[in-house]
Design a protein that fits this description.
The chain is mainly beta. The protein contains one helix and eight strands. It has one helix spanning 16-20; strands spanning 22-27, 31-32, 36-43, 47-55, 60-70, 73-80, 87-95, 100-108.
């Protein structure tokens, strides 16, 4: 009997693209110290996005762009990370409406 049936969806993994309206693909990962970081952004609708990089301690190291208006669709960016020491870093992509997505990247040492 379907009457009164409530489906429990608490264990369903949420898709950041559907939840936040944006997502980012980071490659290659890991990358070399003198490597090029490639990012592919997807946005459901026009949004203002900010992209920052932090170290393992949470210290902001670099802001790639701040409140850049991105049209709906897919966008590609390349950033040269020359001179960045080997280690673990975090890319934080935030939207003007408060959504936040963090991606871990690994830079291989020599």
């Amino acid at each position: 009997d379907a009457a009164g049936f409530v489906e429990d969806l608490t264990d369903v993994a949420e898709n950041p693209f559907e939840k936040l309206g944006f997502d980012v693909l980071v490659y290659p990962n890991p990358l070399t110290q003198d490597g090029m970081l490639n990012l592919e952004f997807s946005t459901l609708e026009k949004q203002k996005l900010t992209l920052k990089m932090a170290d393992e301690e949470g210290r902001d190291l670099r802001t790639f762009f701040r409140e850049r208006e991105m049209a709906a669709g897919t966008h590609r960016e390349n950033f040269h990370l020359k001179g960045l020491p080997g280690g673990v870093y975090f890319l934080e992509l935030t939207s003007g409406n408060g959504g936040k997505l963090t991606k871990k990247i690994v830079v291989q040492g020599r």
